[in-house]
Amino acid sequence: MNTPFYFDHNATTPVAPEVLEAMVSVMAEVYGNASSIHRTGQAARQKLETARRQVAAFLGCDSKEIVFTSGGTEADNLAILGAVRSSQRPRKHVVTTAIEHAAVLNTCAWLEREGVAVTYVPVGADGVVDPSDVQRALRPDTVLISVMHANNETGAIQPVAEIARIGREAGIPVHCDGVQAAGKVEAKPRELGVDFYSISGHKLYAPKGIGALYIRAGAKLEPLLHGGRHEQGRRPGTENVAGAVALGHAAELAQSRLASEARRLSELRDRLERGIEAAVPHVRIVAGRSPRVPNTVNVVFDGVEGEAMVIALDLRGFAVSTGSACSSGAVEPSHVLMAMGMSRKEARSALRFSLGHSNNAEQVDALIEAIAESVSHLRKLSPDYAHA
Amino acid sequence: MPDNNRIAVAMSGGVDSSAVAAMLHQQGYELIGLTMQLWNQRRLPELSGGHAAGRCCSLDDVYDARQVAQQLGIPYYVLNFEERFEEQVVKPFIDEYLAGRTPIPCTLCNNFIKFDRFLDMAAGVGADRIATGHYARISRNKETGRWQLRKGVDEAKDQTYFLFGLTQEQLSRTLFPLGEYTKAQVREIACSMGLPVAQKNDSQEICFVPNGDYAAFIDAYFREQGIERSRIRGEIVNREGRVLGEHDGVHHFTVGQRKGLRIAHGEPLYVIATEPQTQRVIVGRNEDLMRGELVARDVNWISIEPIREPVRAMVKIRNKHAPAAATLTPSGEPSRVLVRFDEPQRAVTPGQAAVFYDGDLVLGGGWIE
Q1: Pairwise CA distance, residues B310 & B306, whole Å
Q2: Does A2 contact B at CB distance below 8 Å?
């Protein structure tokens, strides 16, 4: 099969050529252990710390506030479990939202098994959390608030700065999962006022297996892993220098093209949305009026199963996505869309298109055509589609 | 646009459907491998001690199916049919038992999932036809134009008993490549093609029920759903109504059953019938199980037009039953057929199917009332 047109950048991104080059050269030449005393180790340490400064510059913080992790999931786990376990209170409570990524939701679910109470704040039909709901969810024993910056399925940007202010006033640390925001909008944890901020390399044109957590200077955090004194003891394990270098370069690249890509991708997004609306009847753009990242389009196609659409489009050479997949790879209706008030059936009819650096207007136009043909074909077979 | 050369293969991860994919691939068809995720094996963990491996729809099976698809280099996807399967197969299966009948979930699955929803999904992704690993044959009568269903050449593996509900349209879009082979040959083919699943064990009878213990499944399902069932205990009585013992629910019993009655009695006792209204299980002697006739409802005619006058046929009343000679007589409604056996048959069981054969040919079939 031909290389598909790739419209699934929220799932992952290809490694940028300049990132690959930097990483490969480190893998080939800089093999030292960054914790070794000798110059071979020092060379690795130097690469690692340069990368840390690049990530810090990208996030607008001090490099001492950056801990490298194996990815976004580990960063979320480290922030949530680490912050909750650092509290000495006998009873603990966490506030998060109903639309978080599984890396946050399932970490909170695990905490519930450990006896921690968790409140999952709902969202409105716009896919955005109301900060006053977070305020109301707080309790005297609340030890952490965790809210995502941008949602992976709808792209809706959450009012993180307001929620962080609420947390600060109540003396409660705030974690923000920034995995889907970093590289798409300004991702500056200090400006947002959060204590912890997670990012993932592979959403940023760096490879899988590297991520980072911003930990505000002075914030309390217990490590998850126990071992050597790497990463200030917060994340033991011999440092993944090549991965860190890749993330550093990717962060620098993202910063340098943030504004131009945001403009370009939002134009492509609008082109895609307008094109779908013009070519396909009975569609609905999800969270279309909410503040959102420039690359994400989520559309409900009445009477069509998203699962069938993903396969049909894949066979036509377009990689898109729907909801979240369970461990077998089967599609499950999106918890995010259902939290926004959609029925299971509506949520099953949603497709997500996430644009990225490789996409252009020509690809978008081809995608619109393929969508129109696939929807029309599937609707002819659909007993649920009554508009015919 | 749909391509006539494109076939969707239902891949379960077992040796049969894997062999189908490999054979059709070798014949040059453009294949799409699809696995139907039907049941979440992590549900009802009490039934299996939490071990889902080796049962249908386990991650192991998906892994195996994916591996075969990768080896063949065909696109492969998993379809989530769990909710549909629960609504259209699992719940009716439970309802039937509670209503004192003995259901066949595989037939419901064939009628409502595999040859209905799956065919639609296949069409949706541009495959006009599907292929499965069933042991059965499909042919077309050139004179009448009717699609016909025949037993697979491997009598022991023949699955036509579960396929009596297929419509002409469904048959016209379905391939059963294994119908011409024996299971041993299929394993050989799988082996010679280097399929990683060639030596895998056969699947069990009812895919979502561990160890065939359907009563335990039903009890566990109700506990999971938080449904309290009152008055499920009942009496075991003989045909004269004399109480011989007690039981834990009519769903533990099926007609003809001898084990599990826990009654000390001079001669062997068998379940003759269950009465869900009164929660009574009626027992009697083996002779009491013999029936000379039955009525089949919702009859689907496959290889012949609906009958208008009596027709002779061999009739199978459960999967492992040796077909018995009978006369089929149309009743007032075309979908109801009176089946009169030449010799009385043991344990005619409501909820099971009566499938009519003429030699290899499946004439049709219906549900025993």
Answers
A1: 11
A2: no
Q: What is the mean pLDDT of chain A?
A: 95
Superfamily name and number for B230-284: Adenine nucleotide alpha hydrolases-like domains (2.30.30.280)
The per-residue pLDDT for B265 is 74
Residue B53, pLDDT > 80, answer no
Structural domains of chain A, count = 2
Q: What is the arithmetic mean of pLDDT over A126-147?
A: 98
**Looking at the structure, do residues A160 and A263 belong to the same domain, yes or no?**
no
Q: Is B66 left (phi over 0), alpha (psi -120 to 50) or beta?
A: alpha
SS3 assignment, position B5: strand
In sign, the C-alpha dihedral spanning B93, B205, B220, B111 is negative
Which of A185, A218, A253 corresponds to the end of one domain?
A: A253
Q: Residue A182's domain is classified under what CATH number? A: 3.40.640.10
Tell me which architecture the domain covering B3-134+176-212 has in CATH: 3-Layer(aba) Sandwich (3.40)
Write the residue in B59, B79, B124 that is nearest to A381 by C-beta: B124
Which residues of chain B have a CB within 8 Å of the CB of A344?
Answer: 83
pLDDT at residue A145, rounded to an integer: 98
ipTM above 0.90, yes or no: no
CA B141 to chain centre: 26
Looking at beta carbons, which residues of chain A come within 8 Å of B62?
A: 328-329
**What is residue A107's three-state secondary structure?**
helix
**A-B contacts (CB, under 8 Å):** 51
Mutating which of B43, B57, B79 best tests the A interface, going by the most A Cβ atoms within 10 A? B79
Tokens representing A181 are 């925001």
Which residues does B contribute to its contact with A (CB < 8 Å)?
32, 35, 37, 57, 59, 62, 66, 75, 77-80, 82-83, 120-121, 123-126
CB count within 10 Å of CB A161 equals: 15
| Same domain flag for A59 and A184 | yes
Nearest chain B residue to A373 by CA distance is B1
Q: Which residue has the higher pLDDT, B279 or B133?
A: B133
pLDDT at A4: 85
Mutate to test the interface with A, among B80, B120, B173 (most CBs of A within 10 A): B80
Chain A residues in contact with B125 (beta carbon < 8 A): 308, 311-312, 315
Four-point Cα dihedral B344, B345, B349, B350, nearest 10: -40
User: A294 to chain B, minimum CA–CA distance in Å?
Assistant: 30
Closest to B21 in 3D by CA, of B195, B183, B204: B195
pLDDT digits (tens, 9 = 90+) for B206-260: 888 888 888 889 989 988 988 877 667 889 999 888 999 988 888 888 899 988 7
The pLDDT tens digits of the residues spanning A20-44 come to: 999 999 999 999 999 999 999 999 9
The pTM assigned to this predicted structure is 0.90
Q: What is the mean pLDDT of residues A249-276?
A: 98
The answer to whether A61 is a known catalytic residue is no
Name the one residue in this structure whose structure tokens are 């400064």. A53
Domain that holds residue A164: 17-253
**CB-based contact B125 A1, cutoff 8 Å:** no
